[in-house]
Q: What sequence folds into this?
């Protein structure tokens, strides 16, 4: 069946991978898990490629917003690929090495200074559900379905999968999702604050691009700072480090910061006297 989601932009491929696609158009990077025959379940190699693509998008100065999605319309992502769990139960790459590299990806999305938007058609389940959760915004199609399955398949994400979920939708609902492993439709997800909006499936990309375009018109530095601020307390000292690093970057750009650097290069004492001690 052809994809019922209308394309909103003339996407151009910017990189080639086996398990994902990476496209760009008009300031937006679109990264899609491309394993629709497995409802876009990820194996360790998929996650390594997502990490690479996220890095590429972060450092591409043309990119202002990143969209994370799944190929087709049946699934955003169904979590870890259960067929690559080895004898020890963990997710193995093709060399037999066990990985939980999706945890690195989760943190990479949170630390990325550009907004990351989850564009969700179909299932966002298990580790795939956590992936949309860690994105800054979630735009869902009306066919989207959400849920955790870990306790059913011998797994759990007690990190961001539990704590960030509770901070997003409240403790009771988060515990319900994990302790009962039920599925929730798009309207239920919207009602509990799990997603930002729900649109007809055909309009999913158009609406997502509209949200991205709104952000592209805003100050990149202000978005960067506010994202880091939102994540700082949940991410603890690592979150404060991210926020503080942004502040340092801003200070470097100031005349006062440059005076320190210039004085050192010119082998003279810095003259900070001309900078007011602001109240
Ligand atoms: C997602 C579904 C509800 C979709 O159901 P539907 O009926 O539409 O489709 P099928 O079930 O027929 O699936 C079609 C096709 O895809 C294969 N498939 C689907 N999901 C997976 C998967 N996760 N892994 C491997 N393969 C998958 C399915 O076998 C079919 O192929 P056939 O060849 O058999 O036809 C439903 O598919 C479903 O419930 N899927 C499983 C969801 C799931 O349990 N995911 C894993 C949860 S655990 C997890 O994701 C996880 C990952 C991590 O990396 C963690 C890291 C750290 C801590 C915890 C982690 C964690 O919990």
A:
């Amino acid at each position: 069946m052809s994809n019922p989601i209308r394309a909103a932009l003339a996407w151009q491929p910017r990189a080639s991978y086996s398990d994902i696609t990476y496209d760009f158009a008009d300031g937006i990077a679109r990264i899609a898990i491309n394993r629709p025959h497995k409802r876009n379940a990820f194996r360790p190699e998929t996650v390594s490629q997502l990490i690479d693509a996220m890095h590429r998008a972060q450092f591409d100065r043309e990119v202002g917003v990143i969209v994370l999605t799944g190929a087709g319309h049946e699934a955003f992502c169904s979590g870890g690929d259960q067929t690559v769990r080895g004898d020890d139960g963990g997710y193995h790459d093709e060399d037999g090495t066990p990985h939980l590299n999706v945890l690195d990806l989760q943190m990479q999305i949170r630390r990325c200074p550009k907004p990351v938007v989850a564009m969700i058609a179909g299932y966002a389940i298990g580790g795939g559900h956590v992936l949309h959760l860690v994105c800054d915004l979630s735009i869902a199609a009306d066919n989207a379905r959400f849920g955790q399955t870990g306790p059913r398949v011998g797994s759990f994400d007690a990190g961001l999968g539990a704590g960030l979920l509770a901070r997003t939708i409240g403790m009771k609902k988060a515990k319900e999702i994990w302790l009962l492993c039920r599925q929730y439709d798009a309207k239920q997800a919207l009602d509990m604050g799990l997603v930002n909006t729900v649109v007809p499936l055909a309009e999913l990309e158009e609406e997502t691009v509209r949200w991205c375009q709104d952000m592209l018109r805003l100050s990149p530095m202000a978005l960067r700072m506010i994202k880091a601020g939102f994540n700082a307390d949940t991410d603890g000292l690592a979150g404060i480090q991210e926020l503080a690093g942004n502040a340092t970057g801003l200070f470097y750009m100031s005349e006062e910061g440059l005076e320190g650097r210039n004085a050192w290069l010119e082998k003279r004492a810095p003259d900070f006297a001309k900078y007011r001690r602001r109240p």
Observations:
- The radius of gyration is 21 Å.
- Residues 236-252 form the longest helix (17 residues).
- The CA atoms of residues 47 and 171 lie 29 Å apart.
- The first strand starts at residue 12 and ends at 16.
